[in-house]
């Protein structure tokens, strides 16, 4: 037990990455992919995880190698790059936050049998997360997320294995390339947040620096182990959620609702149909805590990154910059939620597609930075990572162009 506790103490940013990633992309998009396409989009899940890998990894790699965040690196490459980052973040952070919060609120409403409306739950959740971040900041996130991820991982894998065991029909693995515009749009949205939006690489670099402050043993080697563990976990769970959607809902008359509370009920029932009714609250709580972890990590990360960006651009160390951005994001999220409360599907679609279309920017900049003189030579990518990075940039740009030509 002591060895497990020591291992958990060494982990941190990688599991925060997993906590931010295993949310809408897995609970919503992966299950919907399985329900609507069977295992036909497994190729997309595997390829997008492969080709995004180096660009996410460059976050903790750069931070632990240089002692500064990716944002500091962007500033060294040119203020125009940092300004572009600020514009993209301002354009996406409210929709991203609202998309994850609306699912969390829907799960809370389902678990409490409609004690409060989804709108009221949204305000409550944003308020609770803001208070936790105001008083606890990174240390609370670091401790909370580890147990949440372990709980969800165990319950999801067990549910998937039982669903496979109960399945009596032949499992089909034939792959599909969507052809009609609505299906192409879903594919791009699916890959946009699989395993996560690319700007999480920036968040990860900031979390890595925070981890180093609280744990002096957290170094370059341990940061990459921490990242790889979290990343592999998100891939496994992505496949598990797709499998559940396929085994439980594919080919049936039911389809996922665009209402947050209705979708949440369907999601929990998908588990209970495999595990049994006894598991309703266990699975419901696991799903809720997962989405809550995503909500709180994104609510922490965007203000943290915008605070750092503002300081770099204005060359001014604002004392309460983080709290100001936290308040701006909280208020903006609640406002957008009330405007789009009945359109969860549309909101998630907008947020995920925007994330995919902006992914090439992060891929190119992260690759240029990690390969530049700003990174000590011994920490620059291997030949294999160089190859995957170049292929990844081509993949992201190619599919973005394909979507703009065929999917819009």
Describe the structure concisely.
This protein is mainly α and 408 residues long. Helix content is 80%, strand content 0%.
3D structure, described in words:
With 408 residues, the chain is mainly α. The protein has one domain (2-407): Amino acid/polyamine transporter I (Up-down Bundle), CATH 1.20.1740.10. Helix content is 80%, strand content 0%. Helix 8 (137-166) crosses helix 13. The longest helix has 35 residues, at 280-314. It is globular and about 55 Å long. The mean pLDDT is 85.
List keywords for this structure.
single chain, about 400 residues, Amino acid/polyamine transporter I
Write the layout of secondary structure elements.
Elements (H helix, E strand, L loop, with lengths): L1 H9 L2 H9 L2 H14 L4 H25 L3 H8 L1 H33 L6 H18 L1 H30 L14 H12 L7 H15 L5 H30 L10 H16 L4 H35 L6 H20 L3 H27 L12 H25 L1
Helix pairs in contact: 2-8, 2-10, 2-11, 2-13, 3-9, 3-11, 4-10, 4-11, 4-15, 4-16, 5-6, 6-7, 6-12, 6-13, 6-14, 6-15, 7-8, 7-13, 7-14, 8-11, 8-12, 8-13, 9-15, 9-16, 10-13, 11-12, 12-13, 13-14, 15-16
């Amino acid at each position: 037990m002591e060895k497990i506790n020591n291992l958990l103490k060494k982990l941190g940013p990688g599991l925060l990455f997993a906590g931010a990633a295993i949310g809408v992309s897995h609970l919503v998009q992966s299950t919907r992919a399985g329900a609507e396409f069977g295992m036909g989009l497994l190729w997309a899940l595997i390829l997008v995880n492969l080709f995004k890998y180096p660009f996410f990894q460059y976050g903790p790699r750069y931070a632990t190698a240089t002692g500064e965040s990716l944002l500091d690196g962007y500033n060294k490459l040119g203020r125009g790059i940092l300004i572009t980052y600020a514009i993209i973040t301002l354009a996406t952070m409210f929709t991203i936050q609202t998309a994850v919060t609306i699912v969390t609120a829907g799960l809370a409403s389902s678990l409490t049998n409609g004690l409060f409306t989804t709108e009221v739950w949204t305000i409550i959740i944003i308020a609770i997360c803001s208070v936790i971040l105001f008083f606890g900041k990174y240390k609370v996130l670091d401790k909370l997320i580890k147990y949440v991820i372990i709980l969800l991982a165990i319950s999801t894998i067990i549910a998937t294995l039982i669903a496979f065991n109960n399945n009596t029909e032949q499992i089909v693995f034939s792959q599909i390339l969507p052809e009609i515009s609505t299906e192409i749009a879903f594919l791009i949205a699916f890959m946009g947040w699989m395993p996560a939006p690319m700007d999480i690489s920036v968040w990860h670099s900031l979390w890595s620096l925070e981890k180093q402050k609280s744990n002096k043993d957290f170094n370059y080697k341990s940061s990459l182990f921490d990242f790889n563990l979290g990343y592999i976990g998100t891939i496994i769970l992505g496949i598990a959620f797709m499998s559940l959607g396929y085994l439980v809902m594919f080919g049936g008359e039911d389809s996922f609702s665009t209402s947050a509370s209705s979708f949440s009920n369907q999601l929990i029932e998908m588990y209970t149909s495999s595990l049994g009714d006894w598991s309703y609250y266990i699975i419901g709580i696991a799903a809720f805590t997962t989405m809550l972890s995503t909500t709180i990590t994104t609510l922490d990360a965007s203000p943290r990154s915008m605070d750092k960006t503002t300081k770099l651009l204005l060359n001014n160390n604002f004392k309460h910059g983080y709290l100001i951005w936290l308040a701006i994001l909280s208020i903006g999220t609640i406002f957008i939620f009330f405007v789009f409360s009945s359109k969860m599907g549309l909101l998630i679609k907008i947020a995920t597609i925007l994330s995919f279309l902006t992914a090439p920017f992060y891929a190119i900049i992260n690759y240029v930075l990690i390969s530049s003189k700003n990174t000590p030579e011994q920490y620059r990518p291997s030949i294999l990572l160089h190859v995957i990075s170049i292929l990844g940039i081509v993949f992201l740009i190619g599919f973005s162009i394909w979507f703009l030509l065929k999917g819009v």
